[in-house]
Amino acid sequence: MMSVREKRQxxxxxxxxxxxxxxxRWSRLEIGFWLIAVAAWFLLPxxxxxxxxxxxxxxxxxxxxxxLGYAGIVTLxxxxxxxxxxxxxxxxxxxxxxxxLTGLLVAALxxxxxxxxxxxxxxxxxxxxxxxxxxGVAAVLHEIANQASWLTGGADGLxxxxxDPLFGTFEFDIYGHTGxxxxxxxxxxxxLLARFVTASPFGYSxxxxxxxxxxxxxxxxxxxxxxxxxxxxxxAYAGIAGALFxxxxxxxxxxxxxxxxxxxxxxxxxxxxxxxxxxxxxGALAYELIQDALSSVTPQYWQFWLGALLIAFVITGRxxxxxxxxxxxxxxxxxxxxxxLDAVTVADKGKPT
Amino acid sequence: MLTLLFDGLAYGMLLFVLSCGLAVTLGLMxxxxxxxxxxxxxxxxxxxxxxxxxxxxxxxxxxxxxxxxAIAGGLLEKALYCRLYDKTHLDQVLFxxxxxxxxxxxxxYLMGSQQQILNLPDFLRGRFTVGGIGIGVYRAxxxxxxxxxxxxxxxxxxxxxxxxxxxxxxxxxxxARGVGIRVNVIFAVTFAIGSGLxxxxxxxxxxxxxxxxxxxxxxxxxxxxxxxxxxxxSMTGPLVASILLGVADVLGKYYVPSLGGFIIYIxxxxxxxxxxxxxxxxxx
Amino acid sequence: MPDLLKIDALSAGYGKATVLHAVxxxxxxxxxxxxxxxxxxxxxxxxxxxxxxxxxHGxxxxxxxxxxxxxxxxxRVEAGIGWVPQERGxxxxxxxxxxxxxxxRPGKWTLAAMYQLFPRLQERRGNFGNQLSGxxxxxxxxxxxxxxxxxxxxxxxxxxxxxxxxxxxxxxxIRRIVRDEGMSAIIVEQHAQQILAITDQAIILDRGAIAYSxxxxxxxxxxxxxxxxxxxxxx
Amino acid sequence: MRMKSVLxxxxxxxxxxxxxxxxxxxxxxxxxxxxxxxxxxFQSNGRQINAALKAFVATHGEKAGGKQVQFLVKDxxxxxxxxxxxxxxxxxNDKVSILTGFGNTPTALSVAQLSKRAKIxxxxxxxxxxxIMKASPYMLRTSWTIxxxxxxxxxxxxxxxxxxxxxxxxxxxxxxxxxxWFAKTIEAxxxxxxxxxxxxxxxxxxxxxxxxxxDEKPEALFVFVPTGAGAAFMxxxxxxxxxxSGIKVIAMADVTDDDLLNSMGDPAIGVITGGPYSTNxxxxxxxxxxxxxxxxxxxxxxxxxxxxxxxxLDLIYKTLDKTKGEADGDTFVEAAKxxxxxxxxxxxxxxxxxxxxxxxxxMRKVERVGGxxxxxxxxxxxxxxxxxxx
Amino acid sequence: xxxxxxxxxxxxxTFGALMATTDVSFRLxxxxxxxxxxxxxxGKTTFINLLTGVLKPxxxxxxxxxxxxxxxxxxxxxxxxxxxxxQINQLFAGLNVVESLALVINERExxxxxxxxxxxxxxxxxxxxxxxxxxxxxxxxxDQPCSALPYGKQRLLEIALAVxxxxxxxxxxxxxxxxxxxxxxxxxxxxxxxxxxxxxxxxxxxMDLVFNFANRISVLVAGALFxxxxxxEISKDQRVKQVYLGGAAHA
Lengths: 353, 284, 235, 390, 251
Prior knowledge:
The structure holds five protein chains of five kinds. Chain A is an all-alpha fold. Chain A has 16 helices and no strands. Chain A has one domain (27-335): ABC transporter involved in vitamin B12 uptake, BtuC, CATH 1.10.3470. Chain A has helices spanning 2-22, 28-43, 48-71, 78-95, 100-119, 127-147, 149-152, 177-198, 201-211, 213-218, 223-249, 259-272, 279-297, 302-316, 320-333, 338-350. In chain A, helix 4 packs antiparallel against helix 5 and helix 13 runs antiparallel to helix 14. The radius of gyration of chain A is 22 Å and the shape is globular. Chain C is an alpha/beta fold. Chain C is 35% helix and 27% strand. Chain C has helices at residues 43-51, 73-79, 96-101, 111-117, 119-123, 134-146, 164-180, 192-196, 216-221, 223-229; strands spanning 5-14, 17-27, 32-36, 55-63, 66-67, 81-84, 152-156, 184-188, 201-206, 209-215. In chain C, strands 6-7-8-3-9-10 form a six-stranded mixed β-sheet, with helices on both faces. In chain C, strands 2-1-4-5 form a four-stranded antiparallel β-sheet, with helices on one face. The termini of chain C are far apart. Chain D is an alpha/beta fold. Chain D folds into two domains: 2-144 and 283-355, Rossmann fold (3-Layer(aba) Sandwich), CATH 3.40.50; 147-275 and 361-389, Rossmann fold (3-Layer(aba) Sandwich). Residues 19-24 of chain D have low confidence and may be disordered. Classes of the chains: A mainly alpha, B mainly alpha, C alpha/beta, D alpha/beta, E alpha/beta. Chains in contact: A-B, A-D, A-E, B-C, B-D, C-E. The C-E interface holds C 13-14, 16-19, 21, 38-41, 157, 160-161, 164, 189-194, 207-208, 226-227, 230-235 and E 37, 39-41, 150-151, 174, 177-181, 184, 205-208, 211, 234-237, 240-241, 244-251.
């Protein structure tokens, strides 16, 4: 009798192991996504500028996803860390060194340094409170940057940023060739790291907190400390996004700290869907392309149509893109209907380019 | 000094009329309506259009601004907002931002992007002095009108059946329905009135706050601050928060002009850290 | 006599969990029914289902010819249900008087009648809901349901957590409402003996289903049934 | 190491693919990127520029220096980041040879690096901070500079009886410039600025600043706030009764913007401003300009932004005429240097040393002329250079 | 011979003037199957909240294995072995069964701060999860998201999550609440099979469950301990009967 039970248990354990192995495995859709992103470098040399902007936007959204999608903190103040990262790397290039990788590191540190104390302000209160506190912190930093014009250049923007060639070889050209490759690689590394983090015990404890903070504390998870940790990590991400912006544009204005930046980041993430890391990418891609298309059709009134799209999007259900991706992903992983699969892949390929 | 206080009071009262509708929306339906400022803008444009282009007396345009935006608010509630009550805050934020975009671009298209300048009738211009305090006629008018509105709102809330039904719905929506209060109707009406008040506030404020298509974006943050600092459990909270904000803003800019932009945000963060649900929230 | 309230095969619960399993019962006009059972057997869920605050899983509710099954709660109130929720549900930012006048509907139960029934409410008419004692809140909750002039009153544990002397007072009032004024009612109670004394019919729920149904008086004397379904002493 | 060289090779190849500007052929049009704020905080500038462009093309046609001139108008949303990205795309994808527009200083500065690196002439239509010109050797300006105007006011005021000032400026680059240069010149001419107030750019209410200014009891206020805010400022000034208290307002032209002047109404009457252009400037060039502008834009009134935009386009056309359609950065800028134009605002020229505009600055007073409000010029400082660049 | 694992000393909680818990001194012995009963509003919830650290007591202390844990936070108490389940399921809606259990086990093993290593790499974690799955009859639904489970399975997972914490003391708050009749037997038998060395405090209204499961019963009335004894003693106690049957004055 024991052996029957044991047999059953070992069968279960096998099943459990198979579930576990599924985690962290790259789906075909994911791989395809990256292949297309890399291919875009070769095939669309004229679009590198907007692609760079999309990638930086996506990193900002990714940093918000870490706190919102994985820990359930809504924020309208991610620009605080983004902007501080941008200024940190800009100032570094002016006063110390123009080496880009050092700039990224310093910016990550600066972002984390701002995020850490801020996170303690977010431990209490509901959605609205958190929105307003983060917004307030970003607004205060914006004002400080405005006042400290001796350091930041104030409203005129920080002048004189000069970034050394990457690895001493690759100049940041005005076509964005280096910029796109560079930011794409950074995005890839950050996403890889985020994948590790979200699949780690730490990452799962965040998901637990997001889903049910009451139960999370009842199974022994130190909720507050985890929130502080992830907010700080997200601050580092946002800081890196800011530094990438500085380095690829070689210019910073106060807008890096603006409410608009935070709101756009949140909006893009929400459009793309939270809690699966790629939401920011999908959202940034869709948002930028739509905005670009609309504003070239009607430069003065594109906001009208963007607004209409947003409303339609919410009313018809925000889960749609996520569901679509899931179903595409499922179909690609189990290619049973070759005829239909082709259609899907083709349609999919058309989109992100 | 007292002149300044009075200015701050007027400014605060204006903020209150502008944002009280939002407080009710948030408290009653737990709905984050970032498009509240769009209604204020609509009211402002109604007034400017009527006084400047069609020569309608300013005072007459005020109730019209209220009515027009209230009707617009009511219609939008029935057509769109009601679909979003059950959705998440993020959906609501995205949706109402979409509305703001439409409003901004739509007004730009219809009215042009320039600042609209309201021509006040002569009797609201100028200044008088009472006991050594110089008081602007229009600011005095604002204080009186907004004060009366605040009192009227308080009376409606406190002494009418509608008011008590509204408070009951905010207190406990479930039980309210269970004792026969039509919460949905109450909400639609409240939403319309709140929008109307925003419209009226926009009309009154066009003179002081300025009016251009970016109005809803510029002032969205102010409304949210009033609501989050004041809390949503009563009208007193937002009123006190508005006046506090108005006075602090004016005094701050007078005495420490260089800190002008900071003050409200520092107050905001401080209040919310100490009292996450606002100054006047009930102890949970 | 035609039934006032007729429940047929009613199943309901919260979310996915089914709490009530195919409950059927009928109440004649003027009848008061005691709804008994241990904690957690679904008594409150039954009342909540009648007022429309649970998820409907099956069955029908009919009140005086009107089909309530799919109605919104506020419509059910119009159709004639007066609900006294568990834990009273007093609106805390309304005064005592406002709690009553905000919902009152025309009929014989008026504000004045309420003050006559519960003189203490008149004394405290200007106080806010959150300034009342438990007993006063309960009186107010009953008054608030009565001024709806309902066809049937649903009382959910009206004496829960109250001091004995207040319990006496409340039960006396309930007796007047159902006995002297002939109000139909379903009363959920834990104090079985006391409530059986003032009701006509009794129903015992057990695990979401009706386990016993009969005359209150008969049940009051049926110690075995009482202790089987309600007591701690037997098994 | 091999990886690196492969990458370098790839980048070089790409650069060649995209960057190699094909040899200019006669039939190739000269493309001009117009980056202006059609949305956002500075959209009224964008509107005026767009209108001026319409009027200019309608009167001057689309040919200059024997070539087709093609304008590509883009909205930067008043955001410098956008301005930069859009300009980059215009340069790299659309292959524009000239960039123009730039509704405020930050957007102009954001593009300076690009202009420098890609050797693209950048013709500034509005941005007025002095320092911009140093940011790129391909920068040209047809608007005005803040010190140009502020120093003229600083010179005029003490000569005409107002010596004790409080300055009220918006808290951003141009505001600080105005404050600094006004104070500098007025102090050199025997006046004082007893208090300097900075007003947040997104400021809804001037009451506290006005009160503060009044409490300092100056003879006059020196004011610089952006268009639009100026109207609110003047209204609140009158509302406080400061007009009756004997305190004068002497302001930068933005405060009594011609575009809005009519709707500002009576509070504006009598306000003295210094500026480069007034809609009722009395000259045949201006009459023609105003007429063309109104005709093409439903009677809209041009302001100094429109005039500056018009002149920028004129400068581009005239320079192309001179270079026979050659729009290469160095050639173009060299040709533009010293260019003299009979502008609607009076004679202007491009300073060969600074590439900045040299123009007459007028002192004006708001008056009612034929039922409409205008800035009537009453004193001219001729051929003023940017004092900050000297 | 019987060691006390959990003990409260004069535990008191007041909300304003209201005494929610009055001077409760309660002992839970090692390996106990102890039930806490009492009418609605008797303060059972407040008592649990005091034990688990959701509320801070106004007076008195909570001791776990002889150590004072009154000042410890919720998660600290859990890490020391004081674990609870909830009356209303509190699951991680977005995670599946295996993930939920794995994260609890990781947390228990002190791995919760590891942020670069995969969550499923701990040695033996698969076997442990498999054990829990079969102990609680969750094998058939192991890869389903918690929110999609049938109610009875959710209830079992609710308990399994607590057991995965390897508790010394387990507080079961109405474990059978809302479970459909068909699944009831399973829940009860799973409860009966909980490890013997775990001390269990059961809060329950279902007297069948109480009598089948517990060997000792405490009765809480109006925030104070009203009676305590073996199942037999309590079931015969007239005063307890009256509390539950009501009508104390008339009986």
